Amino acid sequence: MPPGHQWFGKPTFKLKYDPAEAKKLLKEAGYGPDKPLVLKALISPSGSGQMQPLPMNEFIQQNLAEVGIKVDFEVVEWNHAHQYLARGRQADASATAARASTSPTSSRTRSPASSGTCNAT
Fold first, then answer.
1. What is the pTM of this model?
2. Is 77 inside a domain boundary?
3. Which member of 23, 48, 114, 120 has the lowest number of beta carbons within 10 Å of its beta carbon?
């Protein structure tokens, strides 16, 4: 994390499990039972360093569902996931370069970070 980022150094906020607050924030953002937040996540059944990746991801999926976030998984082998992430990073770099070459403010333009694994709809 770069200096100045909220997670850099010793964060001053406390992380907590608060489903009611999560539902409140989602509602403020315009999401709810009639318009759920839907995410798609690329996961691997093995090779990721997680001891039991599918049960662990299903646990996260269930926790997010409890607050109104629907997570769909695309299960792929670990090597395919790495290739997918590498292509995503290359695409992000290409998009940034294209934007910088056509933007009059290119010296001030920065591309948002992207993991390439999660898309909100």
1. 0.58
2. yes
3. 120
